[in-house]
Amino acid sequence: MKSHNLSQHGFTLLELVVVIIIISILGLVAVNRSAQWGEIAERAGLQTVVGTIRTALGLETARLAIHHHLDRLPNLVDTNPMDLLAQTPDNYTGTVEREARAGPEGSWYFVNSSHLLVYHLKRTDGFSSQLTGAPRVRFRIKLIYTDNNHNGRFDRGIDDIGGLDLVPAEAFSWQPPQP
């Protein structure tokens, strides 16, 4: 009968500390990447909603043009652009009278008094704006027209209507997260 000399092998304290440090570093990298992906996803979500609204504005312009009613486009400038969508985004909370009653972070809402569509940011790394208070981006519908008489404003019957666009009400920048 052979006897086997089984020796027990285990981690030394130094090896255990090295493994814990490596796992901790990998965990920190994963958490950092996760936060960056959240910021990227929020930016993409904002850009998707803006693009969808711009498409809806283009479709409404085409619909009115087909029916020879482009003269009705200026009436849409102060309206809620979300009303043009067949389905509003899940994070659209509706309308408010004043911006002071803003929606929760990561949500869209329309302010009746200023006719602005607002997105209240959830993640603000890399974001800058001239607005004070809660970090947000505000958009408005803009009438696109040819200013035939060069007076800086739209004049019915004089200026040619080109369409509608959704534009930022104030300048902002939102830099992508750095790796």
Offer a concise description of the structure:
This protein has 179 residues and is of the alpha+beta class. It is 30% helix and 23% strand. A hairpin with a 4-residue loop joins strand 2 and strand 3.
How does this structure look, described?
There is one protein chain. The chain has one helix and seven strands, in the order H-E-E-E-E-E-E-E. With 179 residues, the chain is α+β, with helices and mostly antiparallel strands. The protein has one domain. The longest helix has 54 residues, at 13-66.
> What percentage of the residues does DSSP assign to strands (E)?
15-25%
Report the major sheet.
Answer: 5 strands, mixed
Question: What is the domain total for the residues?
Answer: 1
Helical segment count:
1
Q: Roughly how many Å apart are the termini?
A: 62 Å
Which helices and strands, and how do they pair?
Layout: H1 13-66, E1 92-96, E2 107-111, E3 116-120, E4 127-129, E5 136-146, E6 160-168, E7 172-174
Parallel strand pairs: 1-2
Antiparallel strand pairs: 2-3, 3-5, 4-7, 5-6
Write out key terms for the chains shown:
5-stranded mixed β-sheet, 23% strand, 179 residues, alpha+beta
